[in-house]
Design brief:
CATH superfamily of one domain: Jelly Rolls
Number of helices: 3
Radius of gyration: 14 Å
Structural class: alpha+beta
CATH topology of one domain: Jelly Rolls
Distance between the termini: 21 Å
Strand content: 25-35%
């Protein structure tokens, strides 16, 4: 995907819609762009990362599993949404897994410093 296409995709997210293109370029460069196939695990529950991720294409699901192995669905994520911000703020392990329901393009950004002042 071209750099200009990445900026256009990021601008569709509400959190970035009023951000100047120069700032969007910086965000796009800091993201680790990745494609996932349907059924692939994007993020694992109890992971200790603090990345904030942007779902730019496809659908994904925030899910957990009971002790008996039954799926507990928290929310289905649609394109142009952000996830992972809670762990980035509270610095605790992830509370749910994120699984791709269909092919997805994700742009996670690491280095978020939480409530102490972030570089998103």
């Amino acid at each position: 995907m071209l750099h200009s296409e990445r900026i256009i995709r990021l601008k569709r997210l509400g959190v970035f819609e009023k951000l100047p293109d120069t700032a969007l370029r910086s965000v796009a460069e800091k993201c680790k762009w990745r494609d996932y196939t349907a059924g692939e695990l994007i993020l694992s529950r109890h992971d200790s990362s603090t990345d904030v991720s942007f779902l730019l294409a496809g659908k994904a699901r925030a899910i957990g599993y009971s002790c008996e192995g039954k799926a507990v669905i928290f929310v289905d994520l649609k394109p142009d949404t952000m996830f992972g911000e809670i762990a980035a703020i509270d610095r605790k392990q992830r509370s749910a897994s994120i699984e791709a329901l269909e092919p997805c393009t994700i742009a996670p950004q690491s280095g978020f410093s939480g409530a102490s002042g972030a570089s998103l």
